[in-house]
Structure prediction request, 298 residues.
Amino acid sequence: MNRAGRFAPSPTGPLHLGSLRTALVAWLAARSQGGRFLLRFEDLDPRRSRSEYEAIQISDLRALGIDWDAAPVRQSQRSALYARAVERLRAEGRVYPCFCSRAEIREAASAPHGELPEGAYPGTCATLAPAQAWRRAEVGERHALRLRAEGEHVVWRDRLLGERRGSVDDFVLVRSDGVFAYQLAVVVDDAAQGIGEVVRGADLADSTARQILLQRLLALPTPGYAHVPLVLGPLGQRLAKRDGGATLASRGEPPGVTLAWLAHSLGLAQDAECVASASALVANFDLDRIPGHSVKLC
Ligand code: GLU
Prediction:
């Protein structure tokens, strides 16, 4: 099977310029290799995901000439796959219920704890006797399910960021409201969809160690990773979907003009005024040559 590339937005707002730029890079990386490209909606959070946003995201991607080879997949329809993965991890003793409240987690995570990154869960519930803990969970005490990561350390090579490493904490697999966590779903889906290289925003680089550990524990292949530097707002701030700014609609210009800005920011076009479609950029694209720094909107 020809390995695929993908773009996996959460439908929680219109795509901002940073997400559109990442989508463009992911699409160009796949198409310049003659590869397939897939769209996946990461709509696991029912409170924040909306089908109207999916429709806007699809229409904005299309306006730039980004296309995909199969009907978009929605994570909200794939719970059975995620449940199976959790069962498998549980059978290997790698899952435990966690009864900590948010406040307890915040407090515990702010204390220093060895090699784990700041904010990591320090494993408070990992030491509970398993039989008793599972009994509490089964009788309905509110709990999340966490991975027993055993402090494993992961080293990998990111195609754009170089060598990276990270210690994995006991992160959440299933939230206390029953929603499967992004880290689990993304790993199951990237494998199920045959993704050869994950191209996504640099804000997710720190999630990669967790995902590689999960792939190992679930005996799934590890794809390549390329984390694309972010687009920052005029004051150097991160763009957020919820801010609603810096979108195709808010720019109020023909999509070809926005595409020209994106292409220019990637070193793929001189100051072009308009690039008709993403396909015009395929011939000159080389993932290894995109700028390694974030770009600022002016
Ligand atoms: N759903 C994530 C987002 O919208 C992207 C996840 C990924 O590409 O792995 O930021």
The pocket of glutamic acid is lined by residues 8-10, 42, 186, 200, 204 (CB under 6 Å). The mean pLDDT is 93. The chain is about 30% helix and 15% strand.
